[in-house]
């Protein structure tokens, strides 16, 4: 005798469920940028390398502050001192020292980025390591993408129900967030001159993916 896991009534009354993925994807203009500006100094003597690095760093930071950048917008992200080696015969010997100091400058007036970079370079900076654009209200834009993902899931559920000729309850009985992603836009800056470089902020991609479960009959 064959045994089944459900009786006829259990199978007949078993709730039918439809699992659907929903995608919400937005392209948003950034409203904030972070610039990583640095100074690299090298000298045979560590004291001179450190002194030159400090002077150059203080010089460009002072210029930025005079241009309207306040201290809250500036943060040191990296400081390092390490020896420089050269190969002589079968051994390596110290020939000097390299001092690296990097700060992160956060700005909200994106049309001033090129001027800030040129000003920093003119007053001692010799490294622009990266320029990253972002959003100040990430959560707000993610919620908008999440809403679009739900609308997408509902639309898919209705479309599938139409093809199968069934009736679907478009109020989900379960919603699961599968993925959330906010992709910052990063731009490399070539240090070819102290002229203000052209800057294109691009767009930030905000994405939400959900799984929604619907009843149908």
Automatic annotation (TrEMBL):
InterPro entries: 26kDa_periplasmic_antigen (IPR052022), SIMPL/DUF541 (IPR007497). GO terms for biological process: DNA damage response. Pfam families: SIMPL. This is SIMPL domain-containing protein. It comes from Cytobacillus kochii.
């Amino acid at each position: 005798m064959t045994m089944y896991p459900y009786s006829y009534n259990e199978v007949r009354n078993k709730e039918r469920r439809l699992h659907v993925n929903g995608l919400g994807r937005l392209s948003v203009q950034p409203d904030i940028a972070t610039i990583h500006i640095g100074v690299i100094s090298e000298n045979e003597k560590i004291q001179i390398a450190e002194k030159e690095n400090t002077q150059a760093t203080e010089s460009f930071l002072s210029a930025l502050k005079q241009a309207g950048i306040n201290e809250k917008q500036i943060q040191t992200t990296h400081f390092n001192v390490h020896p420089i080696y050269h190969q002589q015969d079968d051994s390596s010997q110290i020939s000097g020292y390299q001092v690296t100091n990097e700060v992160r400058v956060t700005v909200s007036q994106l049309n001033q980025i090129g001027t800030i970079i040129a000003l920093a370079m003119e007053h001692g900076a010799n490294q622009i390591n990266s320029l990253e654009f972002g959003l100040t209200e990430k959560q707000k834009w993610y919620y908008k993408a999440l809403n679009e993902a739900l609308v997408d899931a509902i639309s898919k559920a209705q479309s599938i129900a139409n093809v199968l000729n069934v009736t679907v309850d478009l109020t989900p009985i379960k919603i699961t967030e599968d993925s959330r992603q906010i992709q910052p836009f990063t731009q490399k800056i070539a240090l070819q001159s102290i002229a203000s470089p052209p800057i294109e902020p691009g767009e930030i991609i905000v994405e939400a993916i959900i799984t929604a479960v619907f009843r149908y009959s």
